[in-house]
Amino acid sequence: MDPRTPVLVGAGQVTHRPGDDGSPSPLELMVRAARAAEEDAGVPGLLVKAGSVAVVDLFSWLVPDPAALLASELGIAPRESVRAVRGGTGPIALLGDLCAKIAAGDLDVALLAGGEVVTTFMKAASRGEDPGWPTQPEGTAPTREVGEDRAPNHPAEEAAGLLAPIFFYPLFEQAVRGAEGRGVDEHQAWLGELWARFAAVARDNPHAWTRDAPTDPAAISRPGPGNRLVSAPYTKLLNANIQVDQGAALVLCSAQAAQDAGVPRERWVFVHGTAGAHDHWHVAQRHELHRSPAIAACAAALREHTGTDPAQADLLDLYSCFPSAVQIGAGELGIDLGTDERAPTVTGGLTFAGGPANDYCTHAIASLATRLREAGDGATGLATGVGWYLTKHALATFGTAPPPTPFADLHPQDVVDVQPSREVVQGEAARGPVETYTALYDRDGTPTLGIVATVLEDGRRALGRSEDGATVADLVGGDPLGREVSVSADGRFTLA
To answer: In sequence order, what are the residues at sequence separation of 6 or more whose Cβ sits closer than 8 angstroms to the Cβ of residue 346?
Structure first.
């Protein structure tokens, strides 16, 4: 085995639930998670050897260089502090970056962490207060930043009211339903069955935020008390839950450093490879809304490099901010969610295990490490990550045995960039069949804003919106897929 082979030797998770003692900051959660990861590795003092400390972009603690504060709090002096750009792919992007440095001989030991205290942050923000967490002087910056980011929305998307994930992912969902040929009720039942599998896993995950979620499919997918419709077809229990207080950390080493430090061999989990790419940046420009060429390209790159199919891993964690992300990811990987007996998650997903902003994948990888060790020799695992609106994608593969080929952090962006795209109609009237749609619901269950997409005969895509109560009720009152829709020059739609 190459002594530079990257291995994950320690994984720690912390979940601070309502009623637990104290009111920790994100920094405190990361410190606790890092200490837990060091303890998990079985070598006291291992963190002192860390040459790099990397932290996922934080939602609830807006400091420019959280890794430096984490290192200081841990009493260690790494050569560099690293931060990921915004997005749920951040943990895997950092993992790939650090492992590449380990494989190249530039790094021996590294710490990767993230932590969110969203409940306290949101309460303080609603009162216009500062939670009083540590700050940094103006001009502070990490040594390095990892990842790519840009403004997420096309002007036509903004004009149509597409401003947040709760609007975009339902659009993907209806496109998936259309591609599968399911009716509205049939697909709603399918969503309940899929998400019940996630809830069942969360019940057995000691770190899950919600361990008593219903596992009855109908209780998840049908609107009811405590489970209102948010945006068609998603109820509250089909959405990620960001209001959690959670932290996670991973300790990475070269095989040589792990051996020299005395990390027991049974603690080693090998990082076989990572891959990242983004689809055409704006949703409105993508050729098909139920597909992701970037996921397919990342999987193909890993398959070609390692000689093994990432979709055949023994354990899976498919990024699960919304059901459409899971279904599209599985489809591109070649996983049949209807027949595959493997659970699509090792945590319970972002609804039930918790969706701590950009840090979910750190928890997923930590859970994978635990499960892989339990599975024993030769066990393999796959984790996927998603950023923005199914825009950025990342895959990471793991195993308890050394990888068949040297580690590589792959970026097949050139394969994705040549895929077909669509021109977006702006400022002119358009007419065509409904390609996909959604509606935002008020808390009393009234649909208040409808959004549609249509592809014209010339292949361009138009987006439309309506706040007219009768029009929106008509949109969600049946199955509008394929129904003729007109979009005015100012972006308002009417159904034929």
So the answer is: 201, 205, 315, 316, 317, 364, 367, 368, 371, 381
